[in-house]
Every structure is written in C-alpha cells, then in structure tokens.
Amino acid sequence: MESIRAVFWKPDPAVQMRKCNSLIRSNTRKLDRDISQLKLLDSKTRQYIIQASKRGQKDPSRAAQAAKETRTFAREMIRIRKQSSRLATSKAQLQSVQMQVNEAFSVRKIEGSIKASTGIMKDVNSLVRLPELTGTMRELSQELVKAGIIEEMVGDSLPDDQLMEGEDEEAETEVDKVLGEILQGKLGKVETPVVEEPVEEEAEEQEATLEEMRGRLEALKS
C-alpha cells in the first residue's frame, strides 16, 4: 500500500532532508548531554577514590577497608569510561550518517534518483541498538526508508547484550591501572577535608554512593 501511494504522492526531498537532519541533530544533542554527565560522574568518582585512599593513609587500622573502597570505586570508573567511549563512538557514527544522508540527497537532486546505501544501513543498525537512541533512531530509519536511502526497516528487537559484555567483571589489571593513574603523585593536591566517621556508617555511605552512581548510569541508558 505504501509503495502504491508513493507512486502518486512523492514526498518532497527537501522536507525529507530537513526532517532527517533534525532527527540526527536531536540524537547528537542527546549524546552530548549524556557524555557531559558521564564526565561529571568520572570526576566525582576520582574524588571518592582519592578521599578513600587518604582515609587509609591517615588511619592504618582502616587501611584494608580504604583499599577495598578504592578498588570498588575504580571498577565503577571503568564502567563509566567504557560507557563514555561507547557514546563517543556512536556520536562519530551519527555524524558519518549525517554526511552520507546529505550526500545521498545531493546526488538525488542532481541525478533525479537515489540509490540505497548499505553503509548507512549498517550504521543505523548499530546506532538503533544503543539504548540511549533506540526510539529516535527507529524514527530516523523510517524516514530513510521513505526517502529510499535504506531498503528496509531496522528490526524492532535487536539484541544489545554485546553492548553490556564485559562490564560486570573488570580485570584487576584495569583496576590497578586506574588507581595508579589517579593516586600517583596526586594526593597532595587534594584539599577536600576528610570527615572521619564510624566504620559501620562508612560502609552504608559507600553503598549509598555506589547505588547513586549506578542509578545515574542506568538512567543514561534509558
């Protein structure tokens, strides 16, 4: 039915191009906001690691607990950085899609026809799997199908398990690398006062902090 309608009512290429670019810009802004929030989380986690390390140095009886805390926060930082890296890659893919889409419309304007692009289809398939962009990327894929830039709709239920692969168990070498990067020669520069609290309260506070950080990470994926 859609193909029959398309024969008699051809969509305006200029309108289609504007709509596609609008969707792409909207997705790009969303990625920029999420990347900025992840940078803030990275900075906060860095401070938590430094403060925990200072507690252990200040009171040797709490060194073991402090060491455990620094490694726990380091694992969270690894997750944050992996997510940030993934979003940066997705932003680059999205920018590539925009350039290819504009080029396709330019060719259509000159030659009067358009050829479906497997390259754009591949990038759109990859981006629609990103939880942050699933909804708007499906809307973009519909517009690209209407314009003839891609040949078929992106599947509604593409697995995203590969995106999460390896996040639950970070290698200890990665943790050591993060701690070495953050603590090496930087303790003396931190001026944030450390408030001493009972050990049992520290455990509760640490868990609450971790839950807050994980909640923010999940919110960025929703």
Describe it for me?
Mean pLDDT is 78; it is low at 156-165 and 187-199. The protein has a single domain (2-158, 167-221), classed as Ferritin (Up-down Bundle). It is built from eight helices and no strands. By secondary structure, the protein is mostly helical. It has helices at residues 2-8, 13-58, 63-111, 118-128, 134-147, 161-164, 172-183, 199-221.
Please give the CATH class.
Answer: Mainly Alpha
Structural class: mainly alpha
> How much is the average pLDDT?
78
Rg, alpha carbons: 24 Å
Number of domains: 1
Number of strands: 0
Identify the overall geometry: elongated
DSSP summary: helix tally: 8
Query: Beta fraction of the residues?
Result: under 5%
Which topology does CATH recognise? Ferritin
Distance between the termini: 34 Å
SSE topology string? HHHHHHHH
Specify the biggest β-sheet: none
pLDDT under 50 segments (min length 5)?
156-165, 187-199
Q: Give the second-level CATH assignment, the architecture.
A: Up-down Bundle
Q: How much helicity do the residues have? A: over 70%
Which tags fit this structure?
222 residues; mainly alpha; Ferritin; 8 helices; elongated
Can I get a quick summary?
This protein is about 75% helix and about 0% strand.
